[in-house]
């Protein structure tokens, strides 16, 4: 498939907002798209793979971590004009808790670390990722209130 043909179709990706206490996991992208930018871990869905299996695989590949309490967060879209014409992506994000351990950058992540929410909001490069984090925080607060 040529680059032009590849860009003629939207790409489906998955991502995860992962909490450890009051901190959230971020990765610094080591490859395009968004090389050098901070984001949540995630990547492309593979043919025949379930969404939850894909997000678990991507998190494991990029950080070495496992997740618990994995729940659907929302669907976000990156239109070509929003990503410099690089792609049209449909992103299906999840909210989760870290099962334990320390992140180790791998695959296409140049760095992986837990940071405070304020630090995450400053580092995140894309407004829709900030929106995903904001929604995840709202879900956590609602869950805490109902306990």
How is this fold's topology laid out?
Elements: H1 3-7, E1 11-20, E2 23-29, E3 38-39, E4 42-44, H2 51-63, E5 67-78, E6 89-98, E7 109-116, H3 117-123, H4 127-146
Parallel strand pairs: 1-6
Antiparallel strand pairs: 1-2, 1-4, 2-3, 2-7, 5-6
Looking at this protein, list some descriptive labels:
Nucleoside Triphosphate Pyrophosphohydrolase, 147 residues, globular, 7 strands, 4 helices, single chain, alpha+beta, seven-stranded mixed sheet
What does this structure look like?
Helices cover 31% and strands 35% of the residues. The chain is an alpha+beta fold and 147 residues long. The protein has a single domain (3-146), classed as Nucleoside Triphosphate Pyrophosphohydrolase (Alpha-Beta Complex), CATH 3.90.79.10. A hairpin with a 2-residue loop joins strand 1 (11-20) and strand 2 (23-29). The mean pLDDT is 90.
- What order do the helices and strands follow? HEEEEHEEEHH
CATH architecture: Alpha-Beta Complex
Task: Give the helix level as a range of percent.
Answer: 25-40%
Instruction: Provide the gyration radius in Å.
Output: 15 Å
Distance between the termini: 51 Å
Q: Tell me how many strands there are.
A: 7
The helix-and-strand class reads alpha+beta
What sort of overall outline do the alpha carbons produce when their principal axes are compared? globular
Report the sheet-strand fraction: 35-45%
Query: Into how many domains do the coordinates divide?
Result: 1
Highest CATH level, the class: Alpha Beta
Tell me, rounded to a whole number, the average pLDDT: 90
Give the count of helical stretches.
4
Give a short account of the largest sheet: 7 strands, mixed
**CATH superfamily heading:** Nucleoside Triphosphate Pyrophosphohydrolase
CATH topology: Nucleoside Triphosphate Pyrophosphohydrolase
Contiguous uncertain segments of 5+ residues: none
């Amino acid at each position: 498939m040529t680059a032009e043909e590849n860009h003629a179709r939207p790409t489906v990706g998955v991502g995860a907002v992962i909490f450890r206490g009051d901190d959230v996991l971020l990765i610094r992208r080591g490859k395009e798209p968004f090389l050098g930018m901070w984001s949540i871990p995630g990547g492309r869905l593979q043919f025949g793979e379930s969404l939850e299996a894909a997000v678990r695989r991507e998190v494991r590949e990029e950080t070495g971590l496992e997740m618990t309490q994995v729940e659907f967060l929302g669907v976000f879209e990156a239109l070509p004009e929003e990503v410099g014409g690089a792609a049209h992506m449909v992103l299906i994000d999840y909210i989760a808790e870290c099962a334990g351990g320390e992140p180790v950058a791998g695959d296409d992540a140049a760095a992986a670390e837990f940071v405070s929410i304020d630090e995450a909001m400053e580092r995140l490069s894309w407004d829709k990722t900030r929106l995903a984090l904001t929604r995840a925080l709202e879900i956590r607060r609602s869950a805490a209130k109902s306990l």
